[in-house]
Amino acid sequence: MRAQSGDWLVIEADDLSRHARRGRIEQVRSADGVPPYLVRWLDTGRTALVFPGPDAHVHTAAEVERTDAAVAARCAAVQAEIGRRYRG
Predict the structure, then answer these.
(1) In the chain, which end has fewer C-beta atoms inside a 10 angstrom radius, N or C?
(2) CA separation (Å) from 39 to 2, 3, 72, 86?
(3) What is the pLDDT confidence band of residue 88, given thresholds at 50, 70 and 90?
């Protein structure tokens, strides 16, 4: 696993009692991008030094931006269709 500052670390849920976690990597401690990472978690706002396990993966900042843009476009299209049907 390799990352750089600004990438996103996702730790998948390993059972039904936990949810997946997503955090922004604020600092990479090694020159080659391997863990540990200093991560600010979205669900708590806290920062922690993380040594990711096999249930974790990294998304680049560019991947997240593309996904967020696609989701926003889809939501806008759905809202427009709902508005069209309500007025129609």
Answers:
(1) C
(2) 14, 11, 25, 44
(3) low
Task: Give CA–CA dist 72/86, Å, rounded.
Answer: 21
E strands in the chain? 8-11, 21-28, 37-41, 47-50, 56-59
> Tell me: the pLDDT tens digits for 11-30?
987 776 678 899 999 999 99
Q: What is the pTM of this model?
A: 0.72
If phi over 0 gives left and psi between -120 and 50 gives alpha, with beta otherwise, what is residue 60?
Answer: beta
Contact 47, 40 (CB under 8 A): yes
